[in-house]
Amino acid sequence: MRPSSNIKFNPMAYFHFLIDASVSHRVFRNTPVYIRLMDQLEHLLEINQNKSHPDQVGLTIFDNHLRLRMLTLPIVDLRNKMQQTLDYQPGSAFIDALAMTSSWIQEQLGQTDYTKHVLVFSDFEENASRYYTVETLGELIKSYREEHGFEFYAFGLKRSQESLFIKMNFSLENLIFLEE
Predict the structure, then answer these.
(1) How far apart are CA 35 and CA 176, in angstroms?
(2) What is the pTM of this model?
(3) What are the tens digits of pLDDT across the range 82-102?
(4) In what order do the strands lie in the sheet with 175-177?
């Protein structure tokens, strides 16, 4: 099944997957969000199989704090990691995780030819962020999009969350809703 999101795949791209592990992985595997995640990974594998310079991918797993952060790994390893059981803690620090990871990606990659895509897979039920607010995250996203070539995507939203993500400066076309 080919993903129906608006992600623009180009020859020099970096994709960072930000995964919310605040629910049990057993439950997560049975959600439309997990299915979309695996569809995206399969699509990346398919388009990169014959490239001499494949797209780069990274991974952050979070719950009530950052659990794991990897700047680069092979796409197949990322897919395999998502098929393993993840440890989890209750509570989602989505706002902190996105802000900290975006800053970290920029520090690590700096000014490169890569288009930087941050793909967030979550239920977006924020309840554990301690460092960033919606407003500060919105300013950060706007800055990173305009000055550093980032694009941000949210997979798994409910329609009732749309205005919050517009406030955080996500592009409307990069919001992927569960009800579609």
Answers:
(1) 13
(2) 0.85
(3) 888 777 778 889 999 999 999
(4) 66-73, 56-62, 13-20, 115-121, 150-157, 175-177
